[in-house]
Amino acid sequence: MRKQCMARGLSSNETVTSKADVADVQGAPQGNAVSSSKITAPARKKTVRKKKTEKTSTLIEDSGNDLDVNKRRKKTPKVQDKNLDSDEDNEDDNDTFEYGWPPLVCCFGPAKNEFIPIVMVSERQMDEDIYSTWKSLQWSPPEFARAPGGSPFNVAIALTRLGGRAAFMGKVGDDPVGYWMVQTMNKENVQTRGVKFDPHASTAVSYMKLTCSDGKLGMECVKPCAEDCFISSEIHVDILKEARMFHFNSMALLEQPATTLAAIKISKEFGGVIFFDPNLPIPLWRSRDETRRIIKEAWNEANVIEVTIQELDFLLDYDFFYRKRNYKHQYYSQDHNESKGRRKSYHTTREELSPLWHENIKILFVTDGTLRIHYYTPTFEGEVIGTEDVLVASTTCDRTGSGDAIVAALIRKLTTQPEIYNDQAELERQIRFVICAGIIAQWTTGTIPGFPTESATQELKEQ
User: Fold this and answer.
1) How much is the pTM?
2) Of 443, 422, 420, 447, which Cα lies nearest the Cα of 432?
């Protein structure tokens, strides 16, 4: 009994000592008495003592001084909270934003479900009855193939093919066609967070037919559709905040021009560059005067403009058209000295462009397919000669997506190499890359399958 009492006394004393040690570590006053009735499991108390002393010794060894551990524990989270709060305050005050690379481009406008004419090849190659019915089928086709399209839609996909980053902003119908359009963009790595679904209108539909005049596909649109219902309150501001360039065309000005102009204003507030591609669908406009008025309003907001020769003729006055028509180029020269002062093609002068030029324009591109691209900046101008557009055949190619591929390639180079705004030699080298992208896009029926990759375009440029 005496040995047991001695053992119990030693163990209780040892436990009380450890309890005091733990109290010292935690900053508790040592004068507080610890009742022996609370110390019922000395072995368990020893375990707790060891764990806390290990933590205490670790903290003291890491700190390198004898400061109070409890104070140190309280200070650490306070300092972290202050740092976090200060970082958040700095972000709010400075309005900073981390941009990804390559820079994001917002493509604003309609997404259409296009139907492209096709002619199926017969298995009986020598059947005269079947082949006799093929005459002019391409001009009035009996069958169409479904293909997603629309200029902003095509530019967004072509840009991602070339290695860029694009986000599409527009509206489609809450129908299977609309979901299929969004799924197509997702497969091509185009961001679709700015797409809205309209339960009351269907997705835009257009039927494409070849015209005999220039071999390009004409467009017949079904109206009304979801693309006409995109309102200002549905603009995704976060996309415009992140995007370094805002691309749109005149199709976005048909029904809701105020929405497009509001998106342009927001993009400018965040420092975005405005890229305008008129892409005039003349039959869809109500009148010539209204078309020129609305397009010039959007034209004055743009920093970079890509316009075709035909569109430039439409926007300028009649005097320019007659001067251009009566121009005698180099092939009409009588001798060598006379040919020196003439170009192989007509190059619009700055004086002729003065009705359309404004101080916000950084660069203006005037394209003639893949044959020639003219460029104008505030300090220099020139042209880059490419190759003639391919001939349109019934089953080999169409040139519909070539213009969208050219626009996407221009955007790709302007966003990743901004020095070309001021470097004429580098600008001409990159325009050759742009022409190669347009050439490759001509050799496949349908727009999206023909859009080239960056490596394929660069390989053609180096040949």
Assistant:
1) 0.70
2) 420
